[in-house]
Each structure stands twice: as structure tokens, then as C-alpha cells.
Amino acid sequence: MKFPSFSYAKPASLAEVTQILAEDDSARVIAGGQSLLPLLAFRLAYPSQLIDLSGVSELEVIRKDVDSLVLGAMVTHVRNLTDPTVAECMPIIPKVVEHVAHEAVRSRGTVGGSVCHSDAAAEMPALMIALQARMHIAGQSGSRVLPAEEFLLGHYTTALEPGEILTHIQIPFTPYLWAFEEIVRRKGDFALAMAFAGLKMDQGRCTQARLVMAALCERPTVCSEAVQFLTGKAIDESVAEEAAGIALQGLSVRSDIHGSEDLRKHQARAAMKRAILRASKGE
Ligand SMILES: Cc1cc2nc3c(=O)[nH]c(=O)nc-3n(C[C@H](O)[C@H](O)[C@H](O)COP(=O)(O)OP(=O)(O)OC[C@H]3O[C@@H](n4cnc5c(N)ncnc54)[C@H](O)[C@@H]3O)c2cc1C
Questions:
Q1: Which of 18, 80, 116 has most ligand 1 atoms within 8 Å of CB, for mutation?
Q2: What is the mean pLDDT of the chain?
Q3: Of the residues 130, 152, 172, the one at which a domain ends
């Protein structure tokens, strides 16, 4: 299908972006266009104008601060895959980005576009929840910061208000060793199940952990009870298996064309078990 008609603006500053958004409530920002352009082609979105963020250099920052890594909203998947500062501060980021789509999509798609699109089966929104990222938001009336868990409200739904944009993401340094596992039909596809395990180990025992499962229901889920179970334990196959089972409890996993509820839970449990074991060994 052809796109609906819209006008186009390419501002050079954040102030201009928020001013256009304040003046035109049907305007929409475009980052890499990898999710928005298909929506336009299918006539699922009808913006009056597209505001291209690629001229706003302040949205492209990658910076190491004292206690966190800062990623501008317009940092592409490829930059996250190849940037030495990202690899040094958060090696889990490039490891996860390797699983996002294919090279052509990764070269244009951005971390900001991915989290603002908030697809429940996408890697970056779930990763931001796992890493306890803080989302920096700007609008005409000022700026605010939300934890990723409060920013990502559900499938295709975020806490952004009309007129607001995501400017950058701040990811705090944490003591965890991270591992990521996902179930996909083919490499580069959206995930059928994702497991993020962050473990802090001391003399073979887990002293702190963060576990997140995603792509199974409306939004990524932080598995607090499984964390409680793991804390203080030496990690072996049976402990990891039990923790993964606890992580799945209470998740309302729907059966779909990719498999029954039981199959999807089984796959997710296996992914979480592997992630816990790998994180415990720092792999
Ligand atoms: C063939 C294909 C395969 C894919 N496979 C995967 C995959 O396996 N895993 C995965 O995670 N993703 C996948 N994607 C999606 C890809 O990661 C996109 O890059 C991403 O979802 C959107 O990023 P974008 O920069 O292109 O955003 P855009 O498409 O430009 O924007 C997406 C939405 O976010 C809004 N937006 C963008 N930036 C901002 C901002 N700074 N503030 C406020 N709102 C903003 C836009 O208005 C729009 O509503 C795939 C895409 C394609 C085309």
C-alpha cells in the first residue's frame, strides 16, 4: 500500500522537535523508520507530519558517566553492537543486539525507536527492564525520568504523553554478571521467549540476582520470587531448573500459532535455566 500523505520536518535541535509536537498533536517523530514505515504502509498510522530525529545530534550520544552508561535515543542497533564504550561498560548490550533482526534493520533501527515502539517480543525493551534503565523524557513543559518498568506499559504502549519524546536512556552500573537466552524460529526473528539472568556470585553462591522473562505475555516480567529462591544458594543444574520453574509461575502465557501454552512454558523454562547457569559461570 502507499503511505498516507504527510509533511516532513527535519529539525536540528530538541527544542524545535518539542515545539513542533506542541503545535501539532497529529505529528509523529521518526527515528530509524523500521517499525513506523510499515505502520504507514499498512495505513495503521496517519500522522499529519513526520518529524525526523536524525538531525538532532544530541540524541546520538554514547557516554560513560561515573555510575552509568548513557545512550541517546537515536543510537542505532549497529552502534550498540560495535561501540567500544558500550562493550566496556555493558557487554550484555552487544550480546543481545546480535539477536535483533538483520544487518539492514540494525543499521537504521534505534534503541529509542525500539523501546518507544514497545513490541512485547522485541529484545531492547526487555533488556532495558532487566538493566533497570532510566528513561529520560522531554516535552515543551519540561523533562522527567521514569524507570523502564514504568515506561513500558504493555505491547505497543508506553508512558509517553502526547508531545513528549524519549531523549536518552541511562543504564546504571550493576554488580551482576549477565546472560541472555532466547527461543526463536530463525535467527533474527522476533523472540518466542526471552530470559535475562543477572547474578552476583561470591564463593560459588548467588548473593544478588535479577531475572526477567519476556515475549511470553503483554510485557516483560521481573521474576522476584525466583530471585528470592536463588539468593544465598550455590548454583547447579537442579537449583537453576527450580528457579526457572518459579520464574514461570504466575505468568499467563497464551498459546498461539507458534505453540501451545505448555510448549511455550517449557521453552521459556529451558531458556531461563540456561541463562541462570551461564550467568553463574560468567559466560
Ligand atoms: C524485518 C524486521 C525485523 C525486525 N526484527 C526485530 C527483532 O528481531 N527484534 C527487535 O527487537 N526488533 C526487530 N525489528 C524492529 C527494529 O528493531 C526497529 O528498529 C525498532 O522496533 C524501531 O526502531 P526505529 O528506530 O526504526 O523506530 P521507528 O520505526 O522510527 O519508530 C518506532 C516508533 O517509536 C516512535 N519513536 C521513535 N523514536 C522516538 C523517540 N525518541 N521518542 C518518542 N517516540 C519515538 C515513533 O514515533 C514510532 O511510533 C525488526 C524490524 C523489521 C523491519
A1: 116
A2: 95
A3: 172
- The answer, yes or no, to whether any atom of ligand 1 lies below 6 A from the CB of 166, is yes
pTM score over 0.85: yes
Q: Is the dihedral of CA 158, 174, 275, 74 positive or negative?
A: positive
Q: Cα 192 to chain center, whole Å?
A: 15
Q: What is the DSSP letter of 208?
A: E
CA of 36 to the centre of ligand 1 (A): 7
Share of the chain above pLDDT 90, in %: 84
Does ligand 1 lie within 6 Å of residue 111's CB atom? Answer: no
Residue 73 lies in a domain: yes
Residues 133 and 143 in one domain: yes
pLDDT in tens, 139-185: 999 999 999 999 999 999 999 999 999 999 999 999 899 999 999 98
Phi, psi of 10 (to 5 degrees): -130, 80
Q: Whose CA is nearest to atom 3 of ligand 1?
A: 101
Query: Are residues 248 and 182 part of one domain?
Result: yes
Residue 181 forms part of a structural domain? yes
Q: Is residue 2 part of a domain?
A: no
Residue 48's CATH number: 3.30.43.10
Residue 115 pLDDT > 90, yes or no? Answer: yes
Contact 111, 34 (CB under 8 A): no
User: Which residue, among 215, 9, 217, 178, has the nearest Cα to 89 in the 3D structure?
Assistant: 178
pLDDT in tens, 2-61: 888 899 999 999 999 999 999 999 999 999 999 999 999 988 888 999 999 999 999 999
Pocket test for ligand 1, best of 59, 61, 114 (most atoms within 8 A of CB): 114
Q: What's the CA-to-centroid distance between 226 and ligand 1, angstroms?
A: 31
Domain termination residue (choose one: 155, 172, 189):
172
Overall domain count for the chain: 3
Residue 1 domain flag? no
Enclosing domain of residue 92: 57-172
Q: Distance of CA 195 to CAs 84, 89, 127, 211, 232, Å?
A: 25, 21, 10, 7, 21
CA of 110 to the centre of ligand 1 (A): 6
Determine whether the shortest distance from the Cβ of 116 to ligand 1 is under 6 A. Answer: yes
